[in-house]
Every structure is written in C-alpha cells, then in structure tokens.
Amino acid sequence: MSLFVKKPLSILMAEAADTEKSLKKTLSAGSLIALGIGAIIGAGLFSITGGAAANNAGPAITLSFVVAALGCAFAGLCYAEFASMIPVAGSAYTYSYATMGEFIAWIIGWDLVLEYAVGAATVAISWSRYLGKFLEGFGLHLPSEIATGPFDGGVINLPAVFIVVLMSLLLMKGTSESAKVNAVIVSLKVTVVLIFIFLGWKYIDTANYNDYIPANTGNFGEFGFSGIIRAAAIVFFAYIGFDAVSTAAQEAKNPKRDMPIGILGSLVICTVLYILFAHVMTGVTNYKTFAGKDGIAPVAVAIEHMGSTDANGMLHPDYPWLNRAIVVAILAGYASVILVMLLGQSRVFFSMSKDGLLPPVFHRVHPKYRTPAKSNLLFMVFVSLFAAFVPARVVGEMTSIGTLFAFILVCIGVWVLRVKQPDVPRAFRTPWVPVIPILGIITCMFMMVFLPLDTWIRLLVWMIIGFDVYLYYGIKFSKLSDHLPSTHTKGNRTVSIIGFLLVILLVVVSLLHHHFNSTDTGLFYFTMIFSGVHILVYLQKFLKNKAAASL
C-alpha cells in the first residue's frame, strides 16, 4: 500500500447499495435540480450584476454571464460524468480516490471543508445582514452587539447562528424533508427573479443598449473585451454551488440517469435566469447609474426606473414593493444555499469516515432517519462558531479558492480515468476529452491566480493543518492500508517532505504579501510562528521515520 493507492470502482459501487446502514435513497431528478438551483442562486445575482456592469462590461454583462457559464460548464460536464459513474456520497473526494489515490483524495476532501462548511458560514453572515435590512423596513432594528461579530464592531452574530442551527436540524430530520423545504424556497426565489424579469421587460429602453460593448478606457478590465472577461471572473462566483448536487449521489433514486440531469439542468436554468435578469437591469436604465452602488442598491435603482414620468419630469416607480420582495428572495436564497452546503459537507465527511481517514462518528447513520445526524450536529457547532465570530470577507475568499481547487482536481480526474480505464461503463460521457477538462483546468487556475495573496496564505495554512490530521490519524486508520509498520514509516516520511515544502511555500507567499501589504502584521506574525513550529515538527517526523526505516 502507498499514499497513492486507489479505491477500486467495484468497492465504490458496493458502497452505493441501499442497506439499513446506508443513506436513504429519496431524491428524484427534480429534487436534484432544485438542490442545484438552491445552492447556486443566492444574493450574488442581485448584488454583483450592477457593479460588474457599471465598472467592467456595460450592457455586455450578459456576455460575461455566458462566458462564466461556459467556465462552469467545463467543470460541470466532468462532475456529471463522475456522478453518473460513481454514485457515492463524497463528490470530488470520492472521484479523486478512484483516480489519483488516497493522499490526493485526502487533500481535496479537506479542501472541500472550505467550500461547504466555511461557505455555509459565509452565507449565514450575509443572511444576518439582509435580515437586518428586511426588519428595518418595518421599523425594527437589531442591536449591532448581537447582529455582528467582534471583528465588525459587535459581540456575536446571533441571526447567523440561528439560520445555521435551523438548517442543521432540518438536515438531521431527513434528506427527503430537507429536499421538500428546499424546493419551496427555490420556488420562492425563482418566482421573484421571474417577476423582476417580466415586470421590467416592458420598461426596457433599447437606447440603453446602443453602446453595448463600451470602448476600453485604456486600463485592462475597464470595458471593451477585457472588461467582459474581468466581469466574467467576477460573476463566475454567482454560479458556485452546482457541484454540491454530486454529494447527494448516494441518496438519488436513479443516480446514473438523474445526477447529470441535476448538475447540468440546474446550471442551464440558472444561466438563462442570470442572462435575462442582467438584460432587464441594463435595459431599464443606463449602466452608468449603477456606479458607486453596493449590495442590492443597483437592483433598487433599476426598480425605480420601472415607472412613469409626471408632468414635472419626476419618475414614479410602479412597483415600490418589489425591493422588499427582492430582500425576501435573498433571505430565502441564502437559506437554501446554507442547507445544501451543510448537506454537502456532511456527505463528504461521511465518505472520508467510511474510508477510515476520519473518526467513525462521521459515518454513523441515525437508525430512524438514516441521516448522518451526529456529523450534522458537529458541523452545526463548527459552522455556527465561524458565522458568529469570523469576518465575512475572510471566509468568503477562502470559499472561492477552495471551490476552484476542487473543480481543477475533478477535471484532472476525468482525464486520468479516461486514459487509464477507458472501458468502464459511463452513463454520461463528457464530450471532447481531454479538451473540455483542459479548458476547465485553465479557467479555474486563471480565477485562482487573481485572488488576493492573503487568501492563498489561508489556503496553505488550512492544507497544512489537514496534513497534520492525515499524518497523525488518516495514515494509521485508512481502510485500504495494510497497516504494516513499514507502510506507516514510508507514508509518514513522504507526507513530512511534502508538508515541509508546503511550509516553505507558505513562508514565501507570506513574505510577498507582507512586502505589498505591510499593514497586515497580524497575519504575517501568525504565519511565521505557524511555519516555524511546523518546520520543526516535519523535520522531527522525517528524521524519526528515516531512522526507523534504516533499522
């Protein structure tokens, strides 16, 4: 056994069988599409469309949504092939285990915590902020001490904790019940988006499209072709979440048929809604009016222009209630995103635990509800603490880089499996392999490169912590391990070397970040202390195992 031992497809398919100790199969194709839409449509559509149009693309923001959708489609096609071929909970973790081996699978499984658990915390913080806006419309104000975390001037973010606890309890009750609630929430937010599109369509002034692709200002990313691409990179994150559908593969009634439908169907529906929404926004008023507006303010500006002008030239909106409906849609949208993210995280850890890489508590199924209730409970506490006390910007950027890293490994995995096991039955086949996976890899790497350096620092710190867990637990208890002392010694030595190199990379990135941003001293000193401790730990572990191997 080596660190790169692969989990045979025969074992994975056996795990997908429906037994008393397995997850309950309750999800149809429609439920999976609803899960995907629930994870994708959050407040991103309402909050980033106007800003990207005003600062980067103009009315061509619709083209930016198309470009971003193509980038997601590359990864989505790869996810669809894997999900139909390996219908087991675990998503990218499971796919990596089958194609690239245990160590890579561990890395991606640990990375998915950034996408799902930390992502749920990010959304919960935003949900709290919009709840405050909604209540202000009725003259109610939440004290900042209980509505924001300590880094934002408060003490604890209780509304964020509330929504995480509520969604976690729902997941403990059962996947079928969660899917039904999610379907209701999805119906609500899609209805509001459609109302905005249909009501706004008649107020479109085609003159607002005359300068459809504004001339570039001379700066890269400010209008012109480069502006469309820059805006595509911005709105790309409005699509994140479709991959969470693949974590529910083991609970699908007919996964080989329905998983591709759920993943690609939700992507197509959301893409159409996004393009139409952006078309109406930039049609009812000139894109320049969105400049300097934050949050949902650009949408409010568009709604104000859905009206008639009186004799004095004053504009009177015909649908003032639509702003409040948008906030309701955002609250509903965020709730469903949190629900799907928490579901995805518990299913990834369910698979890792079954493989022995994490403690068995994560794969124990409730005898009545057949859900990983204890795992849901643990993540309820973890995500609640994050949402209550950690700044939103920090967790938000960690979510983005974790997601893109997962996309890259899935694209690589499809390519690898096509080469090494071309004859394995596939209910859905990604077209034009390896072109599609390569395009997916390039697109996601491009997005990662333009993320801030402090986000890379946090990713490296998180991955090194993951190495620690694998070094002291995963290697010892892996189900695929032969548990021979020589195996553990060799594995520990290899992980120590890779971990040491990762720490050196962390030091280099930290020094670069400190050079360009010397004010962020807290992160710099933490990174230096963290790196120093781990250099000593990995050296000690390496020398110890080298001595053991020579005996």
Structure characteristics:
about 550 residues, mainly alpha, two-stranded antiparallel ribbon, about 70% helix
Summarize the structure in words.
This protein folds into 2 domains: 29-451, Amino acid/polyamine transporter I (Up-down Bundle), CATH 1.20.1740; 453-551. Helices cover 69% and strands 1% of the residues. It has helices at 9-15, 29-40, 44-57, 61-85, 92-99, 102-115, 117-136, 144-147, 158-173, 175-201, 224-235, 255-284, 297-304, 322-354, 373-389, 392-420, 435-449, 453-477, 485-516, 521-550; strands at residues 307-309, 315-317. It has a two-stranded antiparallel ribbon with strand order 1-2. Strand 1 and strand 2 (315-317) form a beta hairpin. The protein is globular. The mean pLDDT is 86.
- Write the H/E string, N to C: HHHHHHHHHHHHHEEHHHHHHH
Q: What's the tally of helices?
A: 20
Q: CATH superfamily membership of the largest domain, which one?
A: Amino acid/polyamine transporter I
Using the 3D structure, state the CATH architecture of the largest domain: Up-down Bundle
- Rough shape? globular
The CATH first-level class of the largest domain comes to Mainly Alpha
**In total, how many beta strands?**
2
> For the terminal residues, how far apart are their CA atoms?
20 Å
How confident is the prediction overall: mean pLDDT? 86
Tally of structural domains: 2
The largest beta-sheet arranges its strands as: 1-2
Percentage of residues in strands: under 5%
The main β sheet shows up as: 2 strands, antiparallel
Rg on CA atoms, Å: 24 Å
Helix content: 55-70%
Based on helices, strands and strand pairing, what is the structural class? mainly alpha
What name does CATH use for the topology of the largest domain? Answer: Amino acid/polyamine transporter I
Low-confidence stretches: none
